[in-house]
Amino acid sequence: MTLSRIARHLLRALALPLALAAAQTQAQEPIRIGSFLAVTGPASFLGDPENKTLEMLVEQINAAGGVLGRKLQLVAYDSAGDAEKARTFTKRLIEQDKVDVLIGGSSTGETMAAVPLAEQASVPFISLAGAVVIIEPVKKWVFKTPHTDRMACEKVFVDMKARGATKAALISGSGGFDKSMRAECLKVAPNYGMQIVADETYGAADTDMTAQLTKIKGSGAQAVLNAGFGQGPAIVTRNYKQVGITLPLYQSHGVASKEYVKLSGDAAEGVRLPAAALLVADILPANDPQKAVVTKYTQDYTARYKSDVSTFGGHAYDGLMLYVNAVKAAGSTDKAKVRDALEATKGYVGTGGVVNMSPSDHMGLDLSAFRMLEVKGGNWSLVK
Q1: What are 346-362's pLDDT values in tens digits?
Q2: Do 303 and 187 sit in the same domain of this protein?
Q3: What are phi and psi of 37, to 5 degrees?
Q4: Residue 102 within a domain
Q5: pLDDT digits (tens, 9 = 90+) for 69-89
Q6: What is the pLDDT of residue 8?
């Protein structure tokens, strides 16, 4: 045997174990989940439960063997609700951390700052924020889990009309979600025979909205909707009672947590808002398709963190599970294949509803996914 043939045999003999080792290394490489969330700051009521949910779920999935034989690794940054920080962290997650997916954006501002980067890098991005602008127009790589602000307007107007109201007043904050929801409510109100007779706003730092509410009191409105999230809606609710308004008061799904009820105190009694089934897991009928999912998540979260669940943590649960299911369906973490599998999601039962996505719908929820809730005795009740 010539020297060159011996060399070729040796190279082949070495190549096989090297290829096997490379394949094994790939199989053992973690699937990197990148997140940027408002864990601290004024929007921490969103980001904190979202972050805790991702941590809990990653641990549970890894304990069960991971996904496609690979463990998940959560790479998380605290954007504190700041859009510029969100942009910086998104860039870092994509370019330095080499994540396989982005799950985050507690607020609309954070999300929209990250969208161009995710689109340019062709990385699947599942947002946890509410505004319809995130998915309309459809963006190839961007999906979202929460119900949209437009859906919230529609659900509220349906309920107002059922109670005999035809004239409504709006009061909204100055944040990205607030502005978007106000615009959507103004847009769809005529479709539900609703006349907007007052349209008041307040600033992010305002601590008293009695002036705006006094105007609303004399406007001839038959019901009032506060489009907003954060501390503002709780202040509006307390001022509402102080001003002596007895009209039905509605809030957005942006305050769908026990924290809003605590901050509002007894003034929250009778307030209605559209929200996910998660908040009323214990009183859902046994045959409700979401019952098992929301009950288990509630039990797991409360046992782990000794605190109440919120729909915001539920958005993170759905975001990660949608990604995991897409990876399984694709049989790969290849970003393009996973993107296609996300878009083809049908019948996923999550905390937010039953998700059916399509090339023209990167959220996949309809109005039936919203439940109308009312605060009774300091707790959530289901409006029949």
Answers
A1: 999 999 999 999 999 99
A2: no
A3: -140, 155
A4: yes
A5: 999 999 999 999 999 999 999
A6: 60
The answer to whether residue 269 is domain-embedded is yes
**116 and 217 in a common domain:** no
157 and 133 share one domain: no
For residue 21, is pLDDT > 60?
Answer: no
7 within some domain: no
Question: C-alpha 309: how far from its chain's center?
Answer: 14
- Number of domain units in the chain: 2
Residue 264 structural domain: 150-275
One domain, residues 336 and 220: no
The CATH number of whichever domain residue 358 belongs to comes to 3.40.50.2300
Residue 20: the pLDDT is 47
Domain annotation covers residue 162: yes
* Closest C-alpha to 36, from 85, 1, 2, 73: 85
Q: Between the CA of residue 261 and those of 42, 73, 256, what are the distances in Å? A: 17, 35, 9
- Asked whether residue 304 carries a pLDDT value surpassing 50, the answer given is yes
- pTM score of the predicted model: 0.86
HSE on the CB side for 369, CA within 13 Å? 22
pLDDT (0 to 100) of residue 107:
92
